[in-house]
């Protein structure tokens, strides 16, 4: 049931302490999973080591975007496609579960949506880099889809 485990060996609670941060399939680890991990690491403890097994803390991040397509492109269904792409991008199988870069949102959308042109990201308002015991998961996702404006160039 352990999706990911991170070790904080930088004396998080004082000299000789180590924290084991467990992420379960739903983000936070259940008390039963924490107990099982604790039992599994018991043989690794030294006489003076203080190990603490704890769950990751889930931080839900809302997304609010305006996706722009080519001037004459059909917009129907693109909002649902964009929502699904963000959910996939935020899946707990990604490498750095405590980070969210706005550029990652643009990359996920631009590589998979036909006639993509640009995205205005209203939320999150900036990149997120949280402590290693945090897991960022998608909260509410709101996507509006529009066509880019016609270029005024050549129209006189």
Description:
- With 156 residues, the protein is of the alpha/beta class.
- It folds into 2 domains: 2-55, no CATH class; 57-147.
- It has helices spanning 31-41, 78-89, 102-110; strands at 2-8, 17-24, 50-55, 57-69, 99-100, 116-123, 128-129, 134-147.
- The strands form 3 sheets. It has a 3-stranded mixed beta sheet, covered by helices on one side. The protein has a 3-stranded mixed beta sheet with strand order 6-4-8, with helices on one face.
- Helix 2 (78-89) crosses helix 3 (102-110).
H-E order: EEHEEHEHEEE
Number of strands: 8
Could you say which overall geometry the principal axes of the C-alpha atoms support?
A: elongated
Distance between the termini: 65 Å
User: Helical element count?
Assistant: 3
Instruction: Give me the side-by-side strand order of the main sheet.
Output: 1-2-3
> Main beta sheet, described?
3 strands, mixed
* Number of spatially distinct domains: 2
Q: Which segments are poorly predicted (pLDDT under 50) over 5 or more consecutive residues?
A: none
Structure keywords:
156 residues, alpha/beta, 38% strand, elongated
Secondary-structure blueprint of this entry?
Blueprint: E1 2-8, E2 17-24, H1 31-41, E3 50-55, E4 57-69, H2 78-89, E5 99-100, H3 102-110, E6 116-123, E7 128-129, E8 134-147
Parallel strand pairs: 2-3, 4-8
Antiparallel strand pairs: 1-2, 4-6, 5-7
Helix pairs in contact: 2-3
